[in-house]
Design brief:
This protein is mainly alpha-helical. It has 15 helices and no strands.
Length: 298
């Protein structure tokens, strides 16, 4: 089927817009979901089941913009690495479809949009947004020097949690940090599965990751983190006085975690990648549990 953009904008412009879309991962929405679910957990719990509608719009847009900006910056920083990794060699910058200067321009534009969204928040949330921006910028560089880039990614992906509590309530209660911890650990879990896909390539080019750090104990360590994440979410449920539907969602999530361990049991790239891709169902299931609790509880 002919792309309608070609007729409206001309073939060259349409092709480049598609390249920009690939650069911000429009064609790979799983990262967007992984960032969105903890944000929605926090908005609903902080709002006691009734989050502010304006904040909901701002945070959903913010998730899309910041995830897009993070992808652009990551590919720009990795432009001399991606061509040597099987999974990433066709990315727009690595393949030459998008010039580095174009990527930087797009990153700046997305950053300005993010700043505009942040101005719609209250002062505590704006201050936290600055920290979130720093985490987003720092993450792509960490894997060159430290073996725990997944923890920085987890902090960046989970930072919307305290931001949501600050924006909704003006405060940062203990439950916000427990939920943030659960989101951070979850990101380390799924991004370690992701890093296991590239482990051989990363070893060759000197890129560091938790998959390399954990070595043969990778699945055992992931199982431990899965248990810690579930324990943190149980504490969240107790503090927020969540009920049956929420704890049922945790039980289903535990089953999904077991499935991910099974998928990655042989440490084959295909199975590890499926374990990564399917992780977002955990976030969905937990959000459904939170939503059902507030919908049907007296």
């Amino acid at each position: 089927m002919k792309n309608p953009l070609s007729g409206l904008l001309g073939p060259d412009v349409a092709v480049q817009l598609r390249n920009y879309g690939r650069l911000i991962r429009i064609d790979k929405p799983v990262g967007l979901w992984l960032l969105l679910w903890p944000t929605l957990w926090a908005l609903w719990i902080a709002g006691d089941g009734h989050p502010d509608q304006g904040l909901f719009v701002v945070f959903v847009l913010g998730v899309f913009v910041m995830r897009s900006a993070g992808c652009v910056l990551n590919d720009y920083v990795d432009r001399n690495i991606d061509p040597y990794v099987e999974r990433t060699r066709t990315r727009p910058i690595a393949s030459g479809a998008v010039a580095p200067f174009e990527a930087l321009t797009l990153f700046i534009a997305l950053g300005l949009i993010a700043i505009g969204l942040a101005t719609m928040l209250n002062q505590p949330a704006r201050m936290l947004a600055i920290v979130g921006a720093v985490l987003t910028i720092v993450y792509p560089f960490i894997k060159r020097f430290f073996s725990i880039p997944q923890f920085i990614l987890g902090a960046a992906f989970g930072w919307a949690v305290p931001m949501a509590f600050a924006a909704q309530t003006g405060e940062l209660p203990q439950i916000a940090w427990i939920l943030f911890g659960a989101a951070l650990i979850w990101a380390v879990i799924y991004d370690t599965f992701y890093a296991m896909v590239d482990r051989e390539d990363d070893l060759k080019i000197g890129v560091k990751s938790t998959a390399i750090l954990f070595g043969d104990a990778d699945l055992f360590v992931i199982a431990g983190m899965q248990a810690v994440m579930l324990a943190a979410l149980v504490f969240v449920g107790l503090r927020a006085e969540l009920g049956f539907w929420y704890y049922l969602s945790l039980a289903v999530s535990a089953g999904l975690m077991g499935r991910h361990q099974w998928l990655a049991r042989n440490r084959e790239p295909g199975g590890c990648f499926q374990a990564f891709l399917q992780n977002h169902y955990i976030g969905l299931v937990i959000f459904i549990g939170i939503l059902l609790h507030y919908s049907f509880s007296p």
